[in-house]
Amino acid sequence: MFYRPEDGHGLPHNPFNALIVPRPIGWISSRGADGVDNLAPYSFFNGCAYTPPQVMFASTGAKEDRNGTKDSLANIRETGVFCVNLVAQAMTDEMNASSQTLPAGTSEFDHAGLERAECETIACSRVKHAPASLECRMSQIVELEGAANAVCFGTVTGIHMRDDYLVEGMFDITRFTPLARLGYRDYTVVKETFTLARPDD
Q: How many whole angstroms separate alpha carbon 38 and alpha carbon 173?
């Protein structure tokens, strides 16, 4: 099968997201200028540089009460900082609850019943019991083609890792089975890994 996106795919559901899998979930916490903490999952998320460490996430779509964007991006534009929290399988329900569209000024931490902790290097909350959290200073926001599409880049200024997931000096993701996004309404978890040496190692 071949199709041009502008012509449509003719399938019951859009296959685009199902082709880019699995995608890590960036559980983005931010704080507005009004002091309200926001939390939302983004599956267009990844690391993008080592030195200095940098991450990115893409925001698509908009809320009626946020002038053409979503709460996370609006908050980051106001304050210049955000935090990326990893999602363990055990936090699936809380992650899903935080994805609900709520009025601006409502904290998803409270809505999802999540305990928060203050970040060390930025004025922002993080998910207290997340496996790891990356404190970030926004470096740039790039507007993309299409309505309400933007990519936010951030430089990592602080990293939290839970001690119970450190094994012999390495962060062991199989201890918490990270949640990942697939296409449609589907998710998966990472339960096993394997090591592969590069040809030039």
A: 26
For residue 79, the enclosing domain spans 23-162
Mean pLDDT, the chain cut into blocks of 10 residues (201 residues total): 96 95 97 96 98 97 86 96 98 98 93 98 98 98 95 98 97 97 96 94 84
Q: In the prediction, which pLDDT does 201 show?
A: 84
Number of independent structural domains in the chain? 1
Count Cβ atoms below 10 Å from residue 90 Cβ, excluding itself: 12
CB 84 within 8 A of CB 15: no
* Distance in angstroms (rounded) separating the CA atoms of residues 182 and 19: 8
Cis link prior to 52 (omega < 30° from 0)? yes
Report yes or no on whether pTM surpasses 0.90.
Answer: yes
Question: If we measure between CA atoms, which residue out of 201, 166, 173, 29 comes closest to residue 88?
Answer: 173
Tell me the pairing of strands 187-189 and 179-181. antiparallel
CATH number at residue 121: 2.30.110.10
Q: Any residues with CB less than 8 A from the CB of 36 and at least 6 apart, and which? A: 105, 106, 107
